[in-house]
Amino acid sequence: MKRHLALAGLTLAVCSLVYAQDASGDRVVVPARNTNHPRRVDVSLTHGSITVKAYNGKEVIVETPGGRTASNRAPREVDGMRRLDMPMRGLSVEEDDNVVTVRMRSNEAGGVTISVPADTSLKLHTLHGEIRVEGVNGEIDVDSLNGTVTLTNVSGNVLAHSLNGTIKATVDRVDQSKPMSFSTLNGTIDVTLPQDFKANVKLTADHGEIYSDFDFKLSGSLTEKNDTSDGKFRVRIDRSGLVGTINGGGADATFHTYNGTIYIRKKK
User: Fold this and answer.
1) Over the stretch 51-107, which tens digit does the pLDDT of each residue have?
2) Cα(180)–Cα(251) distance, rounded to whole angstroms?
3) 65 contact partners, CB below 8 Å, separation of at least 6
4) What is the pLDDT of residue 36?
5) Contact, 90 vs 102, CB < 8 A?
6) Among 149, 60, 184, which Cα is nearest to 113's?
7) Whole-angstrom distance, CA of residue 162 vs CA of residue 229
8) Higher confidence at residue 145 or residue 110?
9) R_g of the chain, CA atoms, integer Å
10) Does pTM surpass 0.90?
11) Are 110 and 91 in contact (CB under 8 A)?
């Protein structure tokens, strides 16, 4: 059964979700219906940052900042007239089969802060804003067109992308059966991984350096070999990136930046 809460203008439709508003902003609580089945949170914004933090509760809590900055600075009364604040942000929260979908009107900004149970999978996208995730254990798929991505003490498998922004991640545990990817066009990639991390790795830094304290077993990609009758041969190696393994190899892990440096650190 689908449950939906739309906060657009003065229209409010409430099923079982709990909504509140005060000067500090909007707050939507999505109660847990099936705690035996992990949640998935899907957030897509045009303008605004996304912050997701794990906590000990069972509900998903979606919060937005207070009203427009200009209104906050203006006096509440002028010449005996009361200020009429702009309507609520165009926030939409929908829950269906343990998938919580969060959207905001494209002309609104400010971002969202979401508290989730630790075992929650995430799909987060924003065009203009940062993405921050802390303490979540699940499938994490994050994408910011213009903004940094910061993942702190996460576990599971990670797909992280930014077109213009740094990616910094600390991964406590890795799902060894699933691929991982960290990519940005303009920015540094700085990833800390467990000491027992195993992967088949491809590293590309077109205009930057690559550093790591893991022991890599590097290999070239043999793409052409022509044997001739006089015993001569030609070998061409693919220089598009470094290919190798960490701790004997495992699932694929890709690290790519066009303008930036890659740091792959071993968790102490």
Assistant:
1) 999 999 999 999 987 654 444 557 778 878 887 765 555 788 999 989 999 998 765
2) 8
3) 24, 25, 110, 111
4) 78
5) no
6) 60
7) 51
8) 145
9) 23
10) no
11) no
**C-alpha angle 120-123-124 in degrees, rounded to nearest 5:** 115
How far is residue 131's CA from residue 115's CA, in Å, rounded to a whole number? 14
pLDDT tops 60 at residue 1: no
CA dihedral 54, 98, 16, 35 (to 10 degrees): -70
Task: Using the structure block, give the residue that is written with the tokens 């165009």.
Answer: 90
Q: Where are the beta strands (DSSP E) in 31-148?
A: 39-47, 50-55, 60-63, 77-78, 81-82, 88-96, 99-104, 112-117, 120-128, 131-134, 137-146
**Is the Cα torsion angle 28, 33, 34, 40 positive or negative in sign?**
negative
In percent, how much of the chain has pLDDT > 70? Answer: 76
SS3 call for 185:
strand
**Comparison of pLDDT for 35 and 215, the residue scoring more:** 215
In terms of residues, how long is the chain? Answer: 268
- Residue 117, token pair as written in the block: 């149970």
- The two three-digit tokens of residue 54, written as one number: 């794990």
Alpha helices in the chain (DSSP H): 69-73
* Largest CA-CA distance found in the chain, in angstroms, rounded: 100
C-alpha dihedral sign at 57, 121, 92, 111: positive
User: What value does the mean pLDDT of the chain take?
Assistant: 83
Cα first-last separation, the chain: 46
pLDDT at 34: 80
CA angle 12, 13, 18 (to 5 degrees): 90
